Amino acid sequence: MDAAPTLLYLSDMTCREFTATVGVVEERAVCLDRTAFYPGGGGLPPDRGSLAHEGREVAVVGIRRDGERLWHDLDGAPPPAGEAVTGRLDWPHRYGVMRHHTAIHVLCGVVYHLFGAVVTGGQIRSDRARIDFTLADLTRERVQQIEDEANRVIHEGRPIKVYSVSREALAAMDLVRTKEILVPEHVRQVRIVEIEGFDAQADGGTHVATTDECGRLRIVKTENKGKQNKRLEIALESTG
Ligand SMILES: [Zn+2]
């Protein structure tokens, strides 16, 4: 079997259950020929969930990159190689991550458009997220302005489109929202995530389909991380 699995989450971010064939196995880990489990990266945590085989279910507690391989770490014995399994994501966890990730993208666009600030770091969880910007001055008025503008974009329910462009085409686009270019040198086709008509970024992560799925955004904390560096922490009101 080919070492590199088909990454279902790249094309279908609503996939929460899938069937796959077991490839190589370790004592408590398996590789699959296809998977919807996001391995983490880009500030996002990995997915968790379970694999079911012949009525027996084992929890997926971690995802590990190993060259082209993706190991699904299990909390029990793995299903045998060559067998069909059903993978299920912990959907509340994944959906929370997608909402917060999309909200962070809205925020990135807002601070870039308002102040020309770019991102220096961030961390996204299923129930909160934070992001650092190159911003010298973060007054109370500015925080309010950022929050209001972000909520306006969220409320518009803009579709999130995913497509890929060549590295050369990327260079010609105005997509510099991070201080360093994060796309590795060997990557020829770059995945673009666009909040339609608002902002686009090179991104390998998972997102919701429209901005209004984020729900109302609140900036719950700001922190001074240096003269030119400010941190914003956000929370989202549940969309029910
Ligand atoms: Zn992202």
Please, could you describe this protein's structure?
The protein is an alpha+beta fold and 240 residues long. Helix content is 21%, strand content 38%. The chain has four helices and 15 strands. It has helices at residues 8-11, 91-115, 140-155, 167-172, and strands at residues 6-7, 17-26, 29-32, 34-35, 49-53, 56-66, 69-74, 84-89, 119-124, 129-133, 160-166, 189-195, 199-202, 217-224, 230-236. The strands form four sheets. A six-stranded antiparallel beta barrel has the order 2-3-7-6-5-8. A four-stranded antiparallel sheet has the order 9-10-15-14, with helices on one face. Strands 11-12-13 form a three-stranded antiparallel sheet. A hairpin with a 2-residue loop joins strand 2 (17-26) and strand 3 (29-32). Helix 2 (91-115) crosses helix 3. The radius of gyration is 19 Å and the shape is elongated. The mean pLDDT is 91. The structure holds zinc ion. Zinc ion (ZN) is lined by residues 42, 101, 105, 203, 205. Zinc ion is lined by residues 42, 101, 105, 203, 205.
Looking at the structure, what is the overall shape? elongated
| DSSP helix fraction | 10-25%
Helix segment tally: 4
Small molecules bound: zinc ion
- Global structural class: alpha+beta
Radius of gyration: 19 Å
Largest sheet: 6 strands, antiparallel, barrel
Order of helix and strand elements from N to C terminus: EHEEEEEEEHEEHEHEEEE
Mean pLDDT across the residues is 91
DSSP strand (E) fraction? 35-45%
Low-confidence stretches: none
Query: Tally of extended strands?
Result: 15
